[in-house]
Amino acid sequence: MSSVQTTPVPTPSPEAGATGTPPRIIPRAHAPRLRALDGLRLIAALMVAAYHYGGRGGEVTKAWGSSPAVQFPTLHEWFAYGPLGVQIFFVISGFVICMSGWGRTLRSFFASRASRLLPSYWAAVILVTAVFALPVVAYKAVSPSDALVNLTMMQQPLGVDRVLGVCWTLWAEVRFYALFALCVVLPGATRQRVIMFCAGWTLAAAITQAANEPLLDLVLMPEYAPFFIGGIGLYLVHRDRKDAYAWGIVGVSWLIGQHYAVAGLWHAPNPDFFSYRTSGGIILVVTFGFVAVAAIALGWLNWANWRWLSVAGALTYPFYLVHEHLGWVAIKVYHQDLHLSAYATILLTTATMLALAWLLNRYVEEWLTPRLRSALSKPR
Questions:
Q1: Higher pLDDT, 295 or 32
Q2: How many angstroms separate the CA atoms of 307 and 32, rounded?
Q3: 50-73 pLDDT, tens per residue?
Q4: pTM listed for this prediction
Q5: H helices of the chain, where?
Q6: Residue 18 has what DSSP assignment?
Q7: Which residues, including other chains, have CB under 8 Å from residue 356's CB and lie 6 or more apart?
Q8: Do 27 and 6 contact (CB within 8 A), yes or no?
Q9: How many whole angstroms separate alpha carbon 255 and alpha carbon 65?
Q10: CA–CA separation, 2 and 183 (whole Å)
């Protein structure tokens, strides 16, 4: 998932004048970090973790020894809304990628994204593969060949077994980065170009849905596009709260996004399904994501400037990577081996995964990220 960077609100350079070239945006130095965005990222990650631990069936049932619906007879219905944390992540990602890509060269943008995503990802793939290979762990590890392919982040298009269940969201992120880099970063970010990118992607995604063309669907991601585009629109609002085009982008993205969220997660009451979500509840959570990022964009949450939020933001990505599969192992130990209650188990499992995320941030990201960024940023 995208990190929250201390990238400034840009200011326009002098007008191009007689050339007719749109003014480029030059970033100001020393802009304050949007720490509330870090906090929102952690909330979204905890939502996803709640779903994986107590809001669905599948492999986690083996860890609990029974269905999470039995372990959490009331809360499991609330935990079932957890996957919508991914949509909130995508809105945040649209905001952050537009913010961090503005004024960057293509090389700098690529170096920033690769150095942010890869260190913890590589560590998580290696760690989960190694833990699942232990004889005492009841879960099957992927083959050595598949594990190696997973290091490229290309396992999904190549049809290879995934080491990390959550990596499908990273594949969506990578495709978004590629689209934004080619259409906005490469030619140079301007307000007009960003607006045209959002409008063009929205229209193309709708056409893709109607055409039912797999290749276009793979590239344009109509079910996720509204959330990325909505986040981009909210960054334009952050630059100018009176920008009617930006608000239009946000409004259309919310309308389309809630449709895809309901279509993907809602079903009529059916005892054969583990969870039941209401369409109203799904719309409410999607709306919360848009409204929360809008409040940050408008500066309404600037008072939430506590330093610990930056720490929370730094832990979110490694926590997101490791929490699901290694969480199964922790749940089994805490609940079945140590006989702790379900509520104590879920809290301790979450705390354990956050502690592991801290270790990954401290000893992997802080060491490897700047070195990788420096290596990728050097001109040849």
A1: 295
A2: 12
A3: 999 999 988 999 999 999 999 999
A4: 0.90
A5: 35-54, 59-64, 68-71, 75-79, 84-101, 106-132, 144-150, 167-180, 191-211, 214-220, 225-239, 244-265, 279-297, 307-331, 342-360, 366-377
A6: G
A7: 318, 319, 322, 326
A8: no
A9: 41
A10: 19
